[in-house]
Amino acid sequence: MHPFRYVAASSIDEAVAVLREHGARARCLAGGTDILVQLRGGRYELDALVDVKGVPEASAMRLGRAGLDIGAAVPCYRIYEDAKVAAAYPGIVDAASLIGGIQIQSRASLGGNLCNAAPSADGIGPLLVHDATVVIAGPTGTRTVPVDGFCTAPGSTVLDDDELVVSVHVPRPPTRFGAAYERFIPRNEMDIAIVGVASSLVLDRSGKRIESARIALASVAPTPIVASKAAASLIGEPPSEEAFRAAGEIAAGEASPIDDMRGTIDQRRDLVRVLTRRTLALAAQRASAGAAR
Amino acid sequence: MTSKTEPKRKFRVVGTRPIRHDGWDKVLGRAAYGADVKLPGLVHGAVLRSPHAHARIVKIDTAKAEKAPGVLAVMTAADMPVAASQVLDLGEEVTNATYASDRVMARAKAVYNGHPVAAVAAVDLNTALEALTLIDVVYEVLTPVVTIEQAMAPGAPLVHDDLVGDDIGERVEHTNVAEHIRYEVGDPEAGFAEASTIVELECRLSRAHQGYIEPQTATAFWSQDGKLTVWTSTQASFGQRDALAGVLMRPVSSIKVVPMEIGGGFGGKIGIYLEPLAAVLSRKCGRPVKLVMERRAVFDATGPAPGGIVRVKMGVDDKGLITAATADIRYGAGAYPGAQINPASVCVFASYRIANARVDGYDIVINLSKTSAYRAPGAPQATFATETVVDEICRRIGMDPAEFRLLNASKEGDRRVDGPAFPRIGNVEVVEAIKGSAHYRSKLGPASSPAKKRGRGMASGFWQGIGGKSTVTISVNNDGVVSLIEGSVDIGGTRASIAMQAAEVLGIAAEDVHPSVVDTDSIGHTDLTAGSRTTYATGAAAIKAAEQVVEEMKNRAALAWETDAGNVRFEDGVFSNAVAKGQRLTFKELSGKLGATGGQISTTGVVNLRGSGGGSFAAHLVDVEVDTETGKVEILRYTAAQDAGKAVHPAYVEGQMEGGAVQGIGWALNEEYVVGDDGVMQNASFLDYRMPTTLDVPTIETIIVEVPNERHPFGVRGIGETGIVPPMPAISNALRDALGVRLTELPMKPGRIMAALKAQAAS
Amino acid sequence: MTQAPIAKAHVRCELNGQPVEFLADQHMSLLEALREVLDMTGTKEGCNDGNCGACTVTMDGRIVDSCLVLAPEADGRRLETIEGVAPPGGLHPLQQAFLEEAALQCGICTPGFLVAAKALLEREPAADEHRIRHWLAGNLCRCTGYDKIVRAVLRAEAEQPKPRARRSGTA
Asked: For a pLDDT cut of 90, what percent of chain B falls above it?
């Protein structure tokens, strides 16, 4: 491995300064569960790695009126072990608790999952269906962009070389909101999604109609994508098996999967159908349960 | 549980579950494995590997790497002697020294992706790795031969221009088929003519890796006096020594192999990989050099089990008796010959009595790493075809699969297709054990959701085991504790199982035998730890050495008691004088008197057990639940019955059965080499190779059947390997039961199951 | 390789209850530092990419794959490796249970399993079988088929001094 400098940044400015100095030859380190493997595999070389776990904004998690702010370096376990967060954001907890095994969850973060920008990322779909935004810091200050569009291609994001993700903001969900994430893997743990689907929906006051919905798909396009037509088909519909099945059918059409060593095009489209239906059903159940509380 | 088949000899130690002798070191993290070797002046090495599966090496320029700071030596094939063509018999693996040499470092051509082309020793690992990037290799890329069809097609590119094939005795040039063997008994065509039902299936099997958690390692020091010492994790310390001698063209006596603790092998750590490279680097830099393989290279460049195509045809008459069977077994050996087609041919029909049978085996070279032994080498793939065919026959004729197996079971005296008659075997008994199990009698129960379906499947399996040469030395200490020195590497508890056999003879506790595994200079020749031979053959050597101890101890007691040695009895650990009541000495007491009666005792037991190890049969039963919307399979319940002859340490017998079943479940459902047209494996990591995790398997229920092995003094059979043979067909049979479709291609991964269900719906 | 050599990182941490200070290349993994710099070879390398758990250690009480931690990241942290599992002169109940249940064959994965299982028992002393299997899913074993490992953890749990009510805790 090409030798690099390890810098433990204690502030955003410090991290940005190192990124500026090295340009594309420096990157941020959160959990390291992807970047260290890629460096060792020779996928790219770096001269510096900036550890952002000591940056207060990147390691804080705050649940407030406006929603949930998750620092870019907050490891998965802190998300799912927080009872309040787990209750309010079950879709995100679904993902945080299935990335890797327990060892990986001690380190891996949603910020890292975003920046790694894998088509199969488990963490991104739930953020998409929560309309989450990404807080980015750079030499000229901070900017906020939607998670939708943050990843531009496998391994690529909208980040400039001298920018870093500070945190992710997940707006407070409306009442009668439910979300769920499910992925298909051949094993029961320690695997990469052949397909992942995140769904969320909001029920109307009666609980009998869907007011709004979001569906996101992983491993069926160069980046995790939003299946907007499938989601739109649900508006005004009852939260029924039939409606969910129809949405799954539309979502399968919105997917543009490829054949690779992990799965085939046909298999992936089938899985989109199934998982869309299943996650919508679970989201609806959670929405009703939430409304009942 | 243990199924009782007959009244047995009373054992005091054998059959108990003492704590294994090496256990403490292993739970404390003190056990030293291959990568844990520390030596004064130790330096680290790294290996440059071909990114092409088939390429001529035009030029290798190592000048820049040699000059890099911290680099101590750089080697290529030019630094190795041209090995003379000679057969290297490593036990479960037989190869030619020329091929063995070429395999560890490419000379003219790289013939598999990951084929070493150069190696570097440097002050630390990263310096060595960085130096690899400074080596310039010019390749002329050739068309790789990746599949069996490609290899056998007319005009196929040749993996080796000079390979001369053997087609049932006929010489064939310009071929990728290294060998075609045939076994035949009776008249298969006449047998099929008598059949009322004939089933034929063609099965396709992916190559599968042993998946040991410890990567290959080797540390070597080539001293100025010409002596080479190699510390390595190997299943075959003597075999490695002989292979190194052949490849390095050095006298055997100049090489010492020190077997470290070994982190799994399953057949994959018999051959040499890094050892000769570490040796040559050490010779060049004058320091001990350590090499540790990266996991990617373990997948790319070591020897998994071969994949292939197996076609089995079987006919039965209206009573359900098998009238004839044929098998066509084609295995992809990888880049050098040796795909285990012979054991495959031996095992393919071993579970059945078949008067008319023919087996054709083809050993085919392709541009992938050379395959190796993997737990019952060759048997699981061939048996997959047989056992799925048997299941289809049972369905066609409406016969219970256990009844069919009992009706057609091979028994003592029946001849295998390759000729030898079976000694006493437990084939019937394992099927009966499954039939009598709670699992077999249980109801499958309804599926857990409407989208899911359940099914149950059964399959049989066989592994013959081998005997071979083993040496054990026992020394009696004056405190009554004995030291037991052995050459058999302990890969999963054999220090205990061998020590227990000695303890049984000596009438002492297992804990009072202290076993040590030593290097090749410190014990007589001992064959590899493989072939299910260690507990069987090295155990027999231990018994022999212990019996000599008892004889000598009797002499000493006679001296002490001033009586004739013929009057000394030895029973339950106590020496007594038959003609003088009250003269009794325990083993421990007599040990304390050795100094006064002629000195300490040490004995050596040497065995060379010919023929098979007696053979071990197994029958497995599995319940599955399949999600018909995703193709995901859950193993609900799994029972394995296997004949252990006599289980020396039942916990480790169960452990072998459980581990074999789980490896088989992995091979059945997910494990495979995904190889592109370029001959490159695309899933060469534990992430994508998908071995079962603890969440993917249930408890494996085990039934140890004990039909004594007449070839071993205590009736012991080697049991390490058979357990991987039945799982794949058992699961295919269970899926057939659940879904009504027959999966004939391994692995039976979710996508394949969905494709089969779609094809079923379409037809 | 033209750039100036990078100075080694100076790491101070607590390792198995003792203060430790060492120098390591900045790009070096904690796994390599433990094994090569500190001579603590009980922690094993199986894959070097976080997929087998053989290199499991605890860092501030959480289990991590030490191959996916950089040595300098350990600065100021509290580490425990297999060498710190047993009390002086004795065995941890998990180690004893692994021996008695024959929960190891080749033993290469054993240190990782023990470190991971100990962390579980300390957090959830009454974890049920499913939770144990879930917790240990990041540790691969190729020899045992896992069952005896699970039995051993359950046994150690049952033999704890103050067993609490059994509960099923999922993450």
From this structure: 95
